Amino acid sequence: MDRERFVKLVEQVLDSLPERFRNRIHNLAVLVEDRPPKSVAQRDGRRGLVLGIFQGVPATQKSVFDLSDGPNRIVLYQKNIEAESVSDAEIRHEVSQTVLHELGHYFGMDEEQLKDV
Fold first, then answer.
1. What CATH number should be reported for the domain holding residue 25?
2. Which residues are registered as beta bridge partners of 31?
3. For the segment 13-62, what is each residue's pLDDT rounded down to a tens digit?
4. I need a surface site. Which of 20, 42, 79, 105 has the fewest CB within 10 A?
5. Residue 77 forms beta bridges with which residues?
6. How far apart are CA 113 and CA 117, in angstroms?
7. For the whole model, what pTM was predicted?
């Protein structure tokens, strides 16, 4: 899938979020890269392909006194998502699941809590 089409798919997933969640997302950039750097892929004993990552301070830990270092980021790794998928429908599903998972981190959920989502 070309990058432009993949980015459109990410935008569609974000646009389909319920308004009550979209209204609570502030100072968050969602980016697409081909693959994660080795430092991300090997961090925390990760197994398998890294499909996405949240980088920043979860909303539940932010303070009005924090100095901003720029926006929080969710980075999706297109080539890894494509490697896990055999069709456009599966790519769409993986993008949706990855965005929701990383948004969970943005909203302060840990991996254990996200297993139940």
1. 3.30.2010.20
2. 75
3. 999 999 988 998 988 999 999 999 888 766 655 667 899 999 988 888 87
4. 20
5. 33
6. 7
7. 0.86
